[in-house]
Amino acid sequence: MNIFTAIAVTAITTTITVTIIPNTAFWGFWRVCCESKELPKGCECFDISSKSDFTNSVYQLPTCPDKLGVKFLFYDRGHNQTAQGISAGQKNILKTSFSGKRETVIICHGFTDEGTAPWMIATKDALLETGDFNVILVDWKFGAAGPKYFQAVANTRMVGALIARLIWDLHVYTAADFKVGAKE
Predict the structure, then answer these.
(1) Phi and psi torsions of 159, nearest 5°
(2) Is 171 strand, coil or helix?
(3) Contacts of 112 (CB under 8 A, 6+ apart)
């Protein structure tokens, strides 16, 4: 059985680009591809086959961004009570008071929680009382809702991809410097 429905070949000067379009009837159960300007490449595919490193979601595929409803709630000392919505894209970032000169802390909840949970607000408040930070609370309550634990596990991959795109754009458009991990 041929698993490819089409192969598109495009010649650009001396470079040849080959795009392989998979047969969705074959891959449909094992892979989901989502298009969104808020994903790192504009389109991301997530695989749950035995060849994938991600087999902990018991055959659940991530929900695409348009249905996942992820919100990034941005706070700083000047806006510490009411969140500014922030998302990937130059225009979306520059309309906020985000500063690439301040340290940025991103806080993300887990299963059955939400971005406005008391512990997240308390953490944000404590950070802003002790320092001049950019604080971003990640709210993915619809994708983290119970009782579907393994669907939430699968959705963490999409949430991570959306966070990665936001971090990249914050770096590109504000020269923000990011270090991964806990502060020393």
Answers:
(1) -60, -40
(2) helix
(3) 144, 145, 146, 152
Q: State the amino acid at position 109 in one-letter form.
A: H
Asked: is 65-174 a CATH 3.40.50.1820 domain? The reply is yes
pTM for the whole structure: 0.81
Is residue 85 within 8 A of residue 182, CB to CB? The reply is no
Q: Output Rg (C-alpha) for the chain, integer angstroms.
A: 19
Collapse the DSSP code of 24 into the 3-class scheme (helix H, G, I; strand E, B; otherwise coil) and give the result.
helix
User: Could you tell me how many helices (H) and strands (E) the chain has, helices first?
Assistant: 6, 8
- For the chain, list the strands marked E by DSSP: 4-12, 15-22, 31-35, 43-47, 71-76, 79-86, 104-108, 134-139
Give domain limits for the chain.
4-47, 65-174
Q: Are strands 134-139 and 104-108 parallel, antiparallel or unpaired?
A: parallel
98 residue type, one letter: F
pLDDT tens for the 184 residues of the chain, in order: 333 333 333 333 334 443 444 444 444 568 889 999 999 888 888 888 777 777 788 889 999 999 999 999 999 999 999 999 999 999 999 999 999 999 999 999 999 999 999 999 999 999 999 999 999 999 999 999 999 999 999 999 999 999 999 999 999 999 998 876 655 5
**What is the C-alpha to C-alpha distance for residues 51 and 158, in angstroms, rounded to an integer?**
19
